Each structure stands twice: as structure tokens, then as C-alpha cells.
Amino acid sequence: MFRVQVLGCSSAVPAFGRHPSAQYVQHHERGFLVDCGEGTQMQMLRYGVRFKRLEAIFITHLHGDHVFGLPGLLNTLSLNNRQEELHVFGPPGLRMLLEDVFKHSQGALRYPLKITEIGSPDHSVIYETPFLAVEALPLNHKVACIGFLFREKPKRPQFLALKAQEMLVPKAYFRLLKLGNAVTLPDGRVIEPAVLQGPTPPQYSFAYCSDTAYRPALAERLQNVSLLYHEATFLETELARAIETAHSTAAQAAALARDAGAGRLLMGHFSARYKTLDGHLAEARAVFPQSWLAFEGQVYTIGPGTAEEAGFVDRKPIFNPKHHETEAE
Amino acid sequence: MFRVQVLGCSSAVPAFGRHPSAQYVQHHERGFLVDCGEGTQMQMLRYGVRFKRLEAIFITHLHGDHVFGLPGLLNTLSLNNRQEELHVFGPPGLRMLLEDVFKHSQGALRYPLKITEIGSPDHSVIYETPFLAVEALPLNHKVACIGFLFREKPKRPQFLALKAQEMLVPKAYFRLLKLGNAVTLPDGRVIEPAVLQGPTPPQYSFAYCSDTAYRPALAERLQNVSLLYHEATFLETELARAIETAHSTAAQAAALARDAGAGRLLMGHFSARYKTLDGHLAEARAVFPQSWLAFEGQVYTIGPGTAEEAGFVDRKPIFNPKHHETEAE
Q1: Which residues on chain A are in Cβ contact (under 8 Å) with B323?
Q2: At residue A162, what are phi and psi to the nearest 5 degrees?
Q3: Which of B12, B48, B96 sits opposite A322 (nearest CB)?
């Protein structure tokens, strides 16, 4: 299981029911948070995300809409009696931010917090599990900003259990064969593992790119990414504003997805100036048809299956018309 | 118009759809925020609170569940192009907390922020408008903690317009008479203002007491408070835990309301260990019948009228059963 759940898809100012940035990535039993804008813990509760499964948190940059939910979440994990170490990655300054906040608010965590500051993201692996590696990507924003690429490690070829049964291989030998060992059966036959290997399952990947100006060079490093989440703060009509604020337009996000040969594009970090997002969708799909709007609460599967099966659907967000007092981003 | 809207009624850990502490107090056209837990700006949007009306913010203490929403809200006001000065009151350390957070997150506010740290709350007036005064109350918590009393200033006596008409006083003289001046009419009569004065309307008041251990001495200073908001983190069955953590039980909150001769008691800051709050209500009402549970989003009028007219109603909160992973408070 490899999936991402969007917890917030707004830019700097929450609006129309859209919350600050946060996404929950789950790979098998392991949970990761990417960004932690204000209110992330409440969004996790709202959408039933398991706090206990959280293994590491990846912060792209220290602008408030990406990190102001972190102290509260860390506090809550402590009050929830978490014992396990939690690993937090982010740009330089993250440690001081957390230390200062906890100093002034007299907070103390009861579990070990390991903070890793990434000075120069260079596509190297910063974290891994037995089945997944996380790389840090350089982004172009007004402050130090890191993208994250979650890439599945090479998988074993499929084991052809049916063929093994037909060959009268006892089940007790399946595990050794699956792990790639040759075995000698009680009847003297030697079975090479390749004989029972089917195709190797594809490795899926998820890239998170926010906040950033359009950075075409990323396409090469993100070749064939299964799902690209990319910010689309603006429309092309606000291109000048996008450049000025080091953000991207929907068309630029789509161009990157197209040039990277991405499976799908998920757009988010929408400016509060946009009440509806039809413009983003149209603009992106003209460039890259597999473009989708992020909806909060929605779970997107990273893997095989049709768009609909994987959770990518077009729908109208439910929004509160009072949720708009601003033209800021 | 004098009213308070509850934006958050949870204690340290949000649970069951209950959010960290925040209340919006409105007196005529002026808006004040008391406490600003994480997510307060989203709660304001959710319940249609006007950001522009916000004149001052009062922070009781620096525990995260009372202040972690402040940096994000201040940021949003700036991105909303606020120009007017905003006055923030709180305990010592508030200034450094904000300065450090904005330093690390590279935030800069475009409007003047005036921070007043209150070292020793002693019931003196810390803020006033032409019609309202705010006093700082000493509370007993684990860290420096301030309660706030919003007290209407003395009002003018009612002007008996009907009687004035019967006395054939021209309407042009009403305003002078209302303001307490004697007037000489064109027909030579001298009208003393007292002749046309009815009863003086009562002054209403609202006290906010959270977080605090039971502090019976407050009753004397809160005599006849119209509405007392008091934390009721625990039930009497958890009295030892209440004492240990410097919090109050529902019965203690009710005892203070009773001893202060309060009009009504509003309870909040409920521990995440309580899924439902029927116990709090029963425990408090046994001591002080005009006890009520705070419901998020609900607007409570501070003034005349029946409980129902003023917004005090018993209802079942809508909660998400997933909203519970903890026994912490």
C-alpha cells in the first residue's frame, strides 16, 4: 500500500475551507507527514489518520503555512504517551524554531525527537525503510526550500506459486525460493529461483514539490515519477505575481509533469484569491491531461489502477463563502 | 451588543471535534480574541468571525493550546492587508515567543503590533474602550497565567422620550438632555435632565478564567459577574489529577460561580479523556444550576434575556469517534 492523503491544499492564507499545507504519506504500515501547517493535527483527527503510525516528518521550509502546526502536533504526540523516536527533517533553522517555541511555551517532549537539517538538498537519500527511500530535492523559493521524493526500492520478481505447485514443489520451500535461493528438494531435484520468477513489479514513486518557482531542471530528476504533487498557487494570468513570489502556475506544474513523464499530477497550494479551481484544472489539463486538483481528506493511491480507482476524481469542493477576506497569497 | 463565541473548548489535546482554546468577544462593533490555540484562524473562518473587527488579543498563558494559533493569525491579518495597530496582551515571554517565531519563519507583519506583557495581574484595568474596560486577573496555573474580566463601564440612565414628548419638549433638545445637560426651552421653561431620566441600565460583565486551579478568592473580585467562563478540565473523580496539573473540576468551577453570584457559568477546556460531557453538566448543576457546557461555534449573549434567548442550550455535540487517541489532558 502506497498512498497519500491531502490534509491541506491552501497557500499562505486559509480560505474557502482550504487549510494550510500538509500531506500524509503511507507506505505499508509506515506513516510520514510532509509539511505541517497550522491545524494539521486537527485535520489528522478529522480524517482518521493514525498518530501512532507516524514515523518521520518532512518539512519543506519554515514559512508559517508549512510549519506552524508542528509544535502542537509534537506536543500532542507527547501527551498521547508516544515513546518511539520521531525523526523530523527540514531546512536549517528548524531546530532553533522548535527549541525556541518549546522554551517559551514550556513544552517538553517525552519521546526522543531527532532533527535533521538539510543544508543543500542534492537528490541524495536522507531517509529509508527496507522498502522505501526518501530523497531531498532542491526547490526555488524565497527561503531555503526542499522537495521530497518517496521512491520504492527495487522489488523482488513475482513468485509463480501456481507453477511451483504444478512442478510439485512442496510449500515449505516457497519462502526460500521467493527470497532468491536455489533449493534441493527431497526428491533430489534442484530448483533455481529464476524458474519460478515472473515479472518484477514496478517501483512507484511520489514527489512533493512545494513551494517553488517553476524549475524545469527537476523534470530530469523526476523521470517517470508515478505521482507528482506540485504547487499551483496561481493561474497563468497571474504569472508575474508567481515569478515575484517564487511560486508556480497550474500550467507550469503541468509542464513539469509532462516533461518528467509523470503518471499523474496533483495540484495544490491554491491562492486564497481563487474561490473555485476550475481554472487551474483547465489550464493544467491543456498541457498535461492527467492533472488533478487536490481535495482535502481525499486519499490518492500511488500505484496501478485507473484514476478513479486510485482516488482521482473531479468534484466540487464544499466551501464556506465566508472563507474569504483576502486577496493575499 | 455584548457576546462571546466559543471557538475552541478542548484542553491540551484536541479531541472529538473539540479544538484548542479560543473565544471571540464582541462588544458593539469591537472584537476581541481571548486565547488563540492552534487553528483559531480556521475556526474564525468556519464560524464567520470578521477578522477586520479584531481590535485586541488577550493571551492567558503560553502553553501551546492557548497560543500556537497566534503566529498564523497575525500572519494572515498581515496578508489580508490589515493596516490598523493590533494590541496583544499576555504574560512575560509572549514578545520573545513571537519575535523568535517570526525570525525563524521569516515572517514580517505589515501593521503595527503592540505587545503588552503583564507581569503581575492585580485586577487593574489593562485596556479600555469608551464603553468597556478589561481587567487582568491572577490565576493559579503551572506557568504565569492571567484571567480577563470584560466589564461594561457605567451607563447613562435611560432617557424617557415619551415623557419628554408629553412635556412638549422639542426633539432638538433630546440629545443635550440625554447627555445630562439642563436646557432652557424657547418657551422659557428650564428642564433638568433628572426629570427625564429613567432607570440606569445594568452593566454586564464577562470573566474568562482558564487555565487555573480552583481559586476561591476570585469570587470576591468577580461578584455579580454576568457570565463566568471557567475551565472545567476534569470531574471530581479526577480531583487529584486536577490538583496535580493545576486545573479545576466542574464542581469547583460551579462553586466559584455560586460564590461569585454569577449570572451564568460557561464551562470549557475539557480533557480529551471525556468523550461526552454529561458528567460535567450534572456535577456543575448540582452546585450551581445556571451552569452550561461551551459548544464550539455557539454565540452566547452577555446581558438580559432567558438562557435560551442568550444562546445557552443543552445539546449533544457532534463528534467524530476517531477523535480520540489519548488519555492526556
Answers
A1: 45-46
A2: -65, -45
A3: B48
Nearest CA in chain B to A102: B64
What is the rounded CA–CA span in Å between residue B29 and residue B89? 20
Identity of the residue numbered A93: G
State the complex-level ipTM. Answer: 0.90
- Active-site positions of A read 65
DSSP-based three-state secondary structure for A208: strand
Farthest CA pair distance, chain B: 79
- pTM recorded for the entire structure: 0.92
Output the pLDDT for position A323.
46
Grouping H, G, I as helix, E, B as strand and the rest as coil, residue B84 is: coil
Answer whether A139's CB lies under 8 Å from A145's CB.
yes
Select the residue from A45, A81, A318 to test the B interface by mutation, using most B Cβ atoms within 10 A. A45
3-class DSSP assignment, residue B257: helix
Contacts of B320 in chain A (CB under 8 A): 45-46, 48
Out of A19-23, A319-323, B48-52, B155-159, give the one with best mean pLDDT.
A19-23
Distance of CA A302 to the CA centre of its chain: 10
- The answer to whether the beta carbons of residues A15 and A324 sit under 8 Å apart is yes
Residue A129 C-alpha cell reads as: 525503510
pLDDT at B318: 59
* Probe site for chain A from B13, B18, B62, B73 (most A CB atoms < 10 A): B13
Q: From the CB of residue B210, how many other CB atoms can be counted at a distance below 10 Å?
A: 29
| Statement: residue B306 has pLDDT above 80 | yes
Q: Do B12 and A105 count as a contact with CB atoms less than 8 A apart?
A: no
Q: Residue A230 contacts by C-beta under 8 Å, 6 or more apart in sequence?
A: A207, A209, A210, A212, A248, A253, A256, A257, A265, A266, A267
The span from the CA of B167 to the CA of B169, in Å, is 6
Report the residue from B52, B322, B327 with minimal CB separation from A45.
B322
Amino acid at A116: T
- Cβ neighbors of A276 (< 8 A, separation 6 or more) are A316, A317
What mean pLDDT comes out for the span A216-224?
Answer: 96
